Amino acid sequence: MPSFMDLPMEIRAMILEKVINGHRTPPISPSTSNMTDVEDMKYRATIISLRPYHEQRDTHSPSNSLPLLLTSRQVSMETQSILNRMKITYVLDISVLDDQFLFSTWISVPRLTIRLSTLHVNVRLFGRILTAEEGDRQMGCGGRQGFHWCFYALLERFLAYGPVSPRKPHIDNYRISSYECRDISVENLVLNFQSAETELPYPPDDIMDYNGWCGKHSGSFRKNPGIDEALSYKTRPEWLLWYLRSWLKQITTAYRGASYGKQIHERIGTITMLVDGRLDTTIDLADTLAKLYLTGAPSESELEWKKKTILRREARGFPVVRPSDPERE
Q1: Domain of life here (predicted)?
Q2: How many structural domains is the chain composed of?
Q3: Distance (Å, rounded) from C-alpha 45 to C-alpha 260?
Q4: pLDDT tens, residue by residue, 77-108
């Protein structure tokens, strides 16, 4: 019986590449049955009232190439040759339930690496619109503690560790050591927003528009007692995109609030946001970084961080704009 190694090398390469770039089927609907709350790091994100869920796996990572690398010497060499030529793209599914709960599942991970060409995130919306009461419960002393912080926490953990299961600390001299940060960087972060809810319709404009939807999420929505109309409708995917776009721009351009945006500037080249696969927004991080701290009274440490970050982005092949460029100031 012919074996895989009897095939012509060109055919073997096609098969290996197909396996390496293989995609899993995303979950039909979000569920906590195979999900877990990962607490293997101290998050910068404010995740108090809501926490993101991560897929629970039997393996440490969902790497497509690992079994091939362990098959035989020849298959391993041919697989490694393909990997060396590839631009690596990860695909992540994030299911959002009722405007609140996030469930993450890795769909495609060709290999573990700290330098990605693209992280493609499919953001699928399920369930209904957030109710006014739920929005009120998310308000805290530091502002709204909603789904945007769950997005940030998922990104924060990925940039620290990658697409791996919860990490176990090792003990050294009777003390638990800190977790190792892998310093992962992504040339292109692509966020594709789409509705996966099939039972509920979108709200008519006279019932709820984007401003009304934002009001629910900010705790400022007030309505006479009765049945909340949010129970009957689903969120438009562009609303979630617009909200996150506004928040991402805020944390990457704010003068004194840029601490949350620092790792985005350091680790991500560009951010592209889609609705149903169609381009909506491109966030020019090179431009926002160049303009950061141009007004006000930045400290020496802030100016030094900006200088080092521009050099770091340049070394990683990310777009950069020098602050002295008069056309971009």
Answers
A1: Eukaryota
A2: 1
A3: 8
A4: 999 999 999 999 999 999 999 999 999 999 99
